[in-house]
Amino acid sequence: xxxxxxxxxxxxxxxxxxxxxxxPVVGIYLVQRRQALMGDGIGHxxxxxxxxxxxxxxxxxxxxxxxxxxxxxxxxxxxxxxKARGDIALAMLFYGGMAGGVMIINxxxxxxxxxxxxxxxxxxxTVSASDITAIVILAAFVLLVGLGLRRQLFSVCQDExxxxxxxxxxxxxxxxxxxxxxxxxxxxxxxxxxxxVSALMVIPVVAAQQATRSYAGTLAAACGxxxxxxxxxxxxxxxxxxxxxxxxxxxxxGLFALAAALTRPIARRRARRAELPVPPPGxxxxxxxxxxxxxxxxxxxxxxx
Length: 305
Description:
The chain has about 300 residues and is mainly alpha-helical. About 75% of the residues lie in helices and about 0% in strands. The chain has 13 helices and no strands. Helix 1 (about 5-30) runs antiparallel to helix 9. Keywords: Membrane, Transmembrane, Transmembrane helix, Transport.
């Protein structure tokens, strides 16, 4: 536990703890609406914001928040307008964000692409006190939106048409979710890195879905998994002297594989229970287990081999 004696590790662990709680809160909505790669697109746009921070000698974190929020809102407006599919808008974020970041960083005084490395892959030694302040403020905003409006956001992500019929401001909620996702990406970029931040938003949620069946249960388990992988990955990266982003993502993938393996028997039992026949009304209790199952035309038509 000697790593706790170092101030930079204390800051990195605080950031990892906050990120582990925050990322799944937004990720659960992105997974639900099948936009798991949205975080990647926003991360590429945030790279342009980081480069602008170097160019204008301002905080890269806050500049990344501004630019990534504008990019996320632009992508969402393009998708809602129907002028481009969601995947096309996301692709434009990918290409434009990366190209803009590389171009601008080379225009900055004394800048080079090497200065972006810690933002691309994360670094435990570069998290400053000002970064912690920004991370905590942005995380508070993300949690306020993600938890305070969870019913509305869940409804919009589940079925936009139904949410619109019920009177919810679907367009405003979609834009708010895009801004919240942008803030989440910026929160996590100092530890996880812009190119891997989407994994921390998605993998804990998918791992939690293997064992839970409700929104509340999935969210709670995903946040627990997020904290576990982010903190353990940060500590492991300190001892192995490797980038924390890659370490965190690999641990998260291992956790997902373990969750899938452990819950597979449970899923099979649930599937078998779902296939049990429903006895007709009035059948005695002792005879219910012997009621023959109705013929399945799809299965009966397949010859056995």
